[in-house]
Specification:
The protein is of the alpha/beta class and 570 residues long. It has helices spanning 6-14, 171-174, 184-195, 227-231, 256-273, 306-319, 334-341, 357-366, 379-382, 395-404, 418-425, 427-433, 542-546; strands at 43-49, 112-118, 134-138, 162-170, 199-205, 236-241, 246-251, 279-283, 298-299, 324-327, 345-351, 371-375, 407-411, 441-452, 456-467, 477-484, 490-493, 498-500, 510-520, 533-539, 566-567. It has 13 helices and 21 strands. The protein is elongated, with a radius of gyration of 27 Å. The two termini are 37 Å apart. Residues 1-108 have low confidence and may be disordered.
């Protein structure tokens, strides 16, 4: 199991370093420019360059007897690559590789001349939120974004850490009548989140005992099972709410009419939202208090049998083919194992406070699924825990639990001020953890080889990238290299787009990529024009790149541009 050195994280913060790596001090010497024209001054390596025998023509990790360039689309082996050139607070593992080349070695013969540019690489400083991972804050309505909201984006620096919001919806509001669904309020929220560049994690509650105030409290205030379900004949129970001794109405969780209504709702929800890019994941919240698969505060209410629980998960897995599903907090034991077998991950709301929670989430990580956590209570409450029944929140424990669980998603707050307070009191630590949670791609080495022959010139960019985060990347990514001018305008693409399938770029893994293309002898080679550099990008789809959109995933390197591209600097 991977652990990030807590000392390294905290010490790095004190000196203003990124939590996921320090300066690439062992990289090759920087090649200066001429100080006048803006053209890069390169080293003339050889006038009789032969890639089949010269070590200069061999990619890092390959043998001197192996060609550095292969036919188009073949992968360059980098199993022997070490990440020593850019130390990070993680343990290295054997590297895997991927690459894209479109130039064969036959084009490079004795007599060719070769020039090399080595790029200087440093970690990015400051918060680095990236899509489909990281922190989230409560976003329960469009009102979260109005200027008057005291914890909104204009007043709360914690919004700089997040890429998605989270909150709950009421089942009875979304499904007011049999066969009738009202998505309007949810749509309003999803749209406003999208306008702010954020996704959403959805929870639909059937029940919320938080609103049981006294014996006169109307059941509609806390029982969010649609009233029409009871009119159809679903049975209800009455239980004592332990917090105040009130006798409260509770659905009978294994009632056949209740179960059919719950499954029908899941079917409608999937028909509307399965695969919707605005949604990060959906909790399966069919049973218990807050839909958390427990009735620990309700004396007189019982969870349904394991058989019924499995049938419900089967149904969700059958209708949701694209969007990630999560089993809520108290789904432990056999039902947890069963959920993992269906590709349903685990979410736990007891994070930080309950000992062992982080270790439990490791099962989902080991099953190749993203893990999800939420604090057990408000930040203020967690500071009062006595370290007996519940563990107190400390910066050290925070880092330890996050890294132990290999978190991909973390709901930072249970009340609107939690993220605000954590960020104000621990800004540097919170910023640094955006580099740690989930995936985090750092370019460790990069060099451009230009081989000039009688018939053509070949430009090849070789890069070494490490995932310095604590979890794999759980979505497909597409890497692109481009020549750009001094203003950042694209001149031409270098080589082919490289696709990296989801789940294959795991934490601690090192991969090598090559981007190569040729220029006929009579044509201008833009690589050597004054002011020309190389930009690297990561897209979530190849279509986004082809349609001229900006990339959405950012490398953890200094040189990030406003359009999210990484400008390589010699």
């Amino acid at each position: 199991m991977k652990r990030i050195s807590l000392f390294a994280v905290l010490a790095g913060l004190a000196f203003g370093l990124s939590a996921c790596g320090d300066d690439n001090s062992s990289a090759s010497p920087v090649v200066p420019d001429d100080g006048e024209s803006g053209a890069v001054v390169v080293d003339e390596l050889s006038s009789s360059f032969d890639v089949s025998s010269s070590s200069e023509g061999v990619l890092p990790g390959s043998s001197a007897n192996e060609p550095a360039y292969s036919s188009a689309g073949e992968t360059v082996d980098s199993s022997a690559v070490s990440s020593s050139s850019a130390e990070t607070p993680v343990v290295n593992v054997p590297a895997e590789s991927s690459g894209s080349e479109e130039v064969s070695s036959s084009s490079m013969i004795p007599g060719d001349t070769t020039a090399k540019v080595t790029y200087s690489l440093k970690p990015f400083k400051g918060p680095l939120p990236n899509p489909h991972k990281g922190f989230t804050l409560l976003t329960e309505g469009a009102w979260n974004f109005v200027p008057e909201f005291r914890f909104g984006p204009d007043k709360n620096g914690a919004w700089n850490l997040i890429t998605y919001g989270s909150g709950y919806q009421r089942w009875d509001k979304l499904n007011p009548a049999k066969g009738v669904y009202d998505w309007s309020e949810l749509e309003d929220l999803l749209n406003v989140l999208q306008e702010h560049g954020l996704g959403y994690a959805l929870r639909v509650f059937p029940y919320s005992p938080s609103y049981i105030a006294n014996n006169e409290t109307p059941s509609s205030k806390y029982d969010w099972t649609p009233e029409w379900v009871y009119k159809e004949g679903a049975q209800k129970d009455y239980a004592i709410f332990q917090d105040n001794g009130v006798l409260a109405q509770v659905p009978r969780w294994d009632d056949p009419i209740y179960l059919k209504a719950a499954k029908d709702f899941a079917t409608a929800l999937a028909a509307k939202y399965d695969g919707d890019p605005r949604l990060e994941y959906i909790d399966v919240r069919t049973f218990g208090e807050w839909g958390e698969w427990h009735v620990s505060h309700l004396d007189g209410s019982d969870m349904p049998s394991l058989k019924v629980q499995k049938e419900l998960l089967d149904h969700y897995a059958s209708v949701f083919k694209k969007t990630l599903l999560a089993l809520p907090s108290d789904g432990y034991g056999e039902i947890y194992t069963y959920a993992l077998s269906l590709g349903i991950t685990k979410r736990d709301d007891g994070f930080i406070g309950i000992p062992g929670t982080a270790d439990s989430l490791v099962r989902a990580y080991e099953a190749g699924l993203p893990t999800i956590a939420e604090n057990i209570g408000s930040y203020e409450r967690m500071l009062t825990f006595d370290n007996k029944s519940y563990m107190r929140w400390t910066p050290e424990r925070w880092v330890h639990e996050i890294t132990t669980a290999h978190l991909t998603y973390y709901v930072l707050e249970q009340e609107s001020d939690c993220g605000f307070r954590i960020y104000n009191e621990h800004k540097d630590l919170a910023d640094s953890m955006t580099h740690v949670i989930g995936y985090n791609f750092m370019v460790q080495q990069a060099e451009l080889l230009t081989v000039t022959g009688n018939m053509e010139t070949v430009n090849t960019l070789n890069i070494t990238v490490k995932n310095t985060g604590i979890a794999p990347c759980f979505f497909d990514i597409y890497m692109v290299a481009e020549f750009v001018d001094g203003s950042g305008a694209v001149l031409e693409q270098l080589g082919k787009t490289v696709a990296v399938p989801k789940g294959t770029f795991k934490d601690e893994m090192v991969k090598e990529f090559s981007f190569a293309s040729s220029v006929p002898a009579r044509q201008t080679n833009v690589a050597v024009l004054p002011g020309v550099s190389v930009a690297l990008s990561i897209y979530e789809s190849e279509d986004a790149f082809k349609n001229g959109k900006n990339p959405t995933v950012r490398f953890d390197n200094d040189g990030l541009q406003a359009n999210n591209k990484l400008l390589l600097k010699p």
